[in-house]
Amino acid sequence: MTTYTAGIDVGSTYTKAVVLDDDLEMVGRAMRPTGFKLTQIAGETLAAALEAAGLPRDAVRYTVATGFGRHQVELSDVQVTDLTAAARGATHLFPGTRTILDVGGQTMKASRLGVGAKVKSFRLNDKCAAGTGAFLEKTARYMGFSTEEIGPLVSTSKDPIAISGVCAVFAESEVINHLSQGVAPADIMHGAVVSLVGRSVQLLRRVGLEPEFTLVGGILRFERMAAVVRDQLKSDVNVAPGDLVQFTAALGAAILGQRRLQQLGDAAVA
Questions:
Q1: Domain count of the chain?
Q2: Does 215 share its domain with 258?
Q3: Which tops the pLDDT comparison, 175 or 84?
């Protein structure tokens, strides 16, 4: 009989859910805007993932929650940090992963892994919006573009304009100034990406640059973002295809659920 587990990642911007079978195959997944009713959205997102998998709620034997809102997921059996979940998900997708960069809406995290996907060291940047995905989204909105238009917009850039502000307020002033001087929005957006990547590489250097590098988080779904990271690191990087890059932590949480069930089973036999 197939054993299913679920991973729920309650992020600051989006909540993701993954349903996994005991062969570690993803049978269903879903994503919803997080909002402010964290308990409710966690349940709704899991229900959508189960619907995608064609499974009833009671098919899931174990649920692991992660993300900043993990403690609000009442239906979870256990909670783990997003660093732990992302490490497990990243090494499942890319077994050679040693360093992870996770760029979300409100935080940026860099971590270096040891044996068994254990986090050896990590650094967070959650003090200033200029070092998070929110900076890109706010820049896009100011210029009249949606978040989903960031990727296509940047792909048309001819020459990224420098944005050197070390905080979101100063960086926004630079954006306004560039617009007033007639700089193309695509070049401003590209400059914002380069600025954000520069901060991310600094964070990576603080944990130690050890290949292979794997990128996760919603902002990394924009192809140019990963390309700029490759350029600044002077190294290739792993990026999961499509929106799977956003589900890495939820996937890792579901994998940890399978591991936990295995441990419980082994303990019962012993």
A1: 2
A2: no
A3: 84
